[in-house]
Amino acid sequence: MDRITQGMLQKKVDYLNELTGNAAAPWTRGEDGKLTANIGNYHLSGAYGGWCLHQMDNESGGVHVPFSCGYVPKRELFYRISAFIDGIHAEREE
Which of 11, 56, 64, 93 makes a 20 to 30 Å CA pair with 41? Predict the structure, then answer.
């Protein structure tokens, strides 16, 4: 398989948000200029040379790490997100 890019990861996350009915962006700026956390949104976080999937957990911007694996290479995260999406589809088919 070819190299997994950040863009490929982002497309998976965008689809995951669409599939779960979550907002596409982690934050929304209101008319007053203040940012509001979009609870439930999935988004990427990069650090330590790796990538992690975060899910917005509260209105203060706290996040949950669905896979509890920390920061991993792009390919590993790509496969984990793909499996997560497959699980959602399987659950909905039952």
Answer: 93
Which residues on neighbouring strands pair with residue 44, listed in sequence order?
Answer: 53
Q: Which two tokens stand for residue 7?
A: 């863009």
- Cα–Cα dist 17/88, whole Å: 12
Q: Let me know how many helices (H) and strands (E) the chain has, helices first.
A: 2, 5
Q: What is the pLDDT of residues 25-40, one digit of tens each?
A: 999 999 999 999 999 9
Q: H or E element: which one contains 16?
A: helix 6-20
**Assigned token pair, 32:** 């007053």
Strands 35-37 and 27-29: antiparallel
Task: Please state the pTM of the whole predicted model.
Answer: 0.91
